[in-house]
Structure formats: structure tokens, C-alpha cells
Amino acid sequence: METAARDRVMELARDEGFPLVRVADASVLGAARETALERQGRGLLADMGWMTPEWLERSTDPGVFLEGARSVVLVALPYAPPGEEEDADGRSRGKVARYAQGRDYHRVFEKKLRRMARTIREELGAEARATVDYGPLLERPLAARSGMGWLGKSTMLLVPGFGPWVLLGAIATTLDLEPDAPLRKTCGSCTRCIVACPTGAISPEGHVVDSRLCISYHTIENRGAIPRELRAQFGSWIFGCDDCLESCPVGRWHGEGYPELAPVDREAAAPELAPLLELDDEAFEERFRGRPIMRAKRAGLLRNVCVALGNVGTADDVEALGRAMDDSSPLVRGHAAWALGRIAVRAGVEDRVAGMLRARLGEEDDASAREELELALAEVSPL
Ligand code: B12
Ligand code: SF4
Ligand code: SF4
Fold first, then answer.
1. Could you list the residue range(s) of the whole structural domain that residue 140 is in?
2. Whose CA is nearest to atom 6 of ligand 3?
3. Of all atoms in ligand 3, which is nearest to the CA of residue 163?
4. pLDDT tens digits along 104-132
5. How far is the CA of 364 from the centre of ligand 1 (A)?
């Protein structure tokens, strides 16, 4: 074991500002591989087509990620702790997951990890390869092996003192570093996240998330329609979801998050919904460049905004949704129709909305948007 090298790697991580750093050995993650393949086989990874069985096999073997890997250094940054952020100005506002309220964490990690990997190569004469999120390395089971935290029933890595509010990165290296021991902790009898999940995406016993039901999956990764039967449970989430994290009693951390991951502004946490519907490609890019929200792309975000308005919008939002029925994306047009149908009934503006839906139906040529319009009309003016 290379003790001096371990001390130096720890020092490098701390110099980069990582308050949490641990080492895991680089052997195959056998149990995690089996579990992941079983989940994939059952369709629980939804349409994340890149997570093929081959990808899952590679991502559970650090030796494939880096030939000759002996150790994996896990690092974590804490981010935006829970706090006050409701803007009670009567406008319809959406919710953005805390990790996405600031700069893109991939960029923040990449700079630091690249510098660390370079020093390991140049100073310690060993190979090193870094990753953050995109893999192929399954970071949570590796972090659990390193004793950074334990895998909660929400499937989040729970870190003592910080709970689930940390983001992870990893560096595989050919250095033979003394590994840290896993924690002997579990969630015990707690079931808060399971109860808090609005769509029932976490299995009754925990430790399994069905991405097909997960708001985070749909608002970030899904490129198509949000399943109609789930929309009403999305509340006002427009990017990601923190309900299982917010409910978690572990950590109850009220310290500062890493400064570079702090929310870009107050509007970042609870943006007003209707103005988001006006964004064209250029305005979307300008507003969200360098932030995780870019991943949803303009049409995906506006689709999410429509769903949120369908759940929390008022008669004041009807005009903006009416204009969204003319959007260039049929996905947005269809979801705008759904939202109008919901608001009409809630706000008692059925006649006005029925007129708008009928007028739009006369022009709509996309089959799925037409179907949404017809269903919304049936809701607003039943025969
Ligand atoms: C795909 C993915 C998603 C998907 C699927 C998530 C899922 N639960 O499967 C979606 C888009 C839904 C998603 C959502 C989120 N994600 Co995500 N996601 C990933 C990614 C790329 C892979 C995760 C994965 O392998 N899923 C496949 C399933 C099968 O694995 P798993 O659920 O983690 O289960 C493993 C272990 O738990 C273990 N295991 C299984 N069963 C059991 C049972 C017991 C008893 C035990 C002890 C262990 C155990 O084996 C499994 C297989 O390896 C990782 C980054 C990476 N490269 O690892 C980030 C990552 C997991 N995500 C992250 C975050 C922050 C989120 C969100 C909080 C974002 C948000 N606010 O919206 C949500 C949280 C939702 C949730 N409850 O998981 C962080 C998590 C940090 C942390 N503290 O845990 C990661 C690590 C990214 C990062 N670099 O920081 N995510
Ligand atoms: S992210 Fe939201 S929808 Fe997904 S498992 Fe957690 S609480 Fe449920
Ligand atoms: S809410 Fe409870 S059960 Fe869920 S992850 Fe946190 S401690 Fe575990």
C-alpha cells in the first residue's frame, strides 16, 4: 500500500475544495452489477437507452474504466441546503431541483478532477482517469463501498452530516491506496421518502426507484410526452424533483453549500412559469447556458412548464398557455392544451378555454397534439 501517495491524494482533493474524500478498492462491484442488470431487465430504467447491459457491466468494473485500476478516489461537494425560497407574490411559480439552481456541476467537478488526475500522473507516476456522473462508473455503490455514506431507501447516498445533499465524482487510479471501510449504517425503520414520493416511484420496501414513475426522470431525461396519468402528481416541479431528498431526516444540514454550486439568483429556485413559455431557442440558451436545465432542451422545459401550470396555474395564465398552443413544438402545444383543460375546470373559465381549444383544433395538424386538444375539450365541455 502506498501510504505517502494516499496522503498526497487526500491533500490534492482538499486543495481542490472537496470536503469529502474517500478511497474504495477497484474490484468489480458484483452485487451492484447484478442489481442494476436486474433493474434494467425489468424496464425500471425507462428509456435511458444508453444504460445498456454492456454499459452497466462496464460501469461496475473500474478495471475496464481504467486498465490496471487498483483504487477509486471518491469526492463529493455539498450543495444548496434546504432553506426558505417561496415567493408569495401570487404569481404561478415552478420548482427546480436544488442541484440545478446553480451552475452545471459537471463543469465545476471536471476542472478540479482533471487537475487532480494530471498531478497523480505527473507527480506520482501512476495512471488516473476521472468522471462525474456520465461514467461509465456507478458512483453511488462505489461511494458506499468507500464509506462516504450509505445507500438509503430512496437510493440516494446518505452522507453523515450532509444527508443526500451531495454530488459525486470519481478518479480511478493504478495507485494501490489503502481503502476506507464501509459504514455500518442503514435507514432502519424510516420510510419517509417512500411516503413522500408523489408518484409512488420508490418501491414499498425501498432501495428501488422505478424511473418510469419518477418526476426527475420525466422532467430531465424523457424527450417525449409526460404520461397523462402521472401529470397531476408532478405538482410544480419543472426540472428534477427533490421530494425524497427533502423528506430525509439524515443530515438535517443547514450549513453553506459549495459556493460555485449556489443558486444563480432567487428566480432560479422558483421561476415564474408563464414567462418561460415565451422563450425561443435563443432566449432559452441565453437564460440557461452553463446550467443543468440545458439538458431538458427548450421543448422539454416548456412541456414541463405546461404540466406545472396545469397543476398550479390560475386564470391569469390562460393567455400565455393559449399562445403556447401556437408553439413550434407539437409536444409543447399538446401539453399546453392539457394544462388549459385543467385550469378551465379549476378556475371556472370553461367557456373561454373551450373556444380557444376549438379554434386551435381547426389548425392543428400534428396527431398527438390533436389528441391532447380533443381530450382537453372533452374535459372542458363534456357532451
Ligand atoms: C441514471 C441516473 C438517474 C436516473 C435513475 C435514478 C435511479 N435511482 O436509478 C434519474 C434520472 C431518475 C435520476 C434522478 C436523480 N438523480 Co441521478 N443519476 C443517475 C446515474 C447516471 C446512474 C444511477 C444508476 O446507476 N441507476 C441505476 C440503478 C439501478 O442504480 P441505483 O438505484 O443507484 O442502485 C444501485 C445501488 O443502490 C445498489 N443497490 C440496489 N439495491 C440495493 C439494496 C440495498 C439494501 C442496498 C444496500 C443497495 C442496493 O445497487 C444498484 C445498482 O448499482 C448517477 C451517476 C452515476 N454515474 O452513477 C446519477 C446520480 C445517482 N444522480 C444523482 C442525483 C443528485 C439525482 C437526483 C437527486 C436529481 C434531482 N434532484 O432530480 C434524482 C434522485 C432520484 C433518486 N431517488 O434516485 C447523484 C446522486 C448523489 C447522491 N447523494 O446519491 C448522482 C450520483 C450523480 C452525481 N454524480 O452526483 N438519476
Ligand atoms: S425524485 Fe421525486 S419522483 Fe423520483 S423517486 Fe424521488 S420523490 Fe419520487
Ligand atoms: S427518508 Fe428515511 S428511509 Fe428514506 S433515505 Fe432518508 S433515512 Fe432512508
1. 3-91+102-173
2. 248
3. 6
4. 999 999 999 999 999 999 999 999 999 99
5. 39
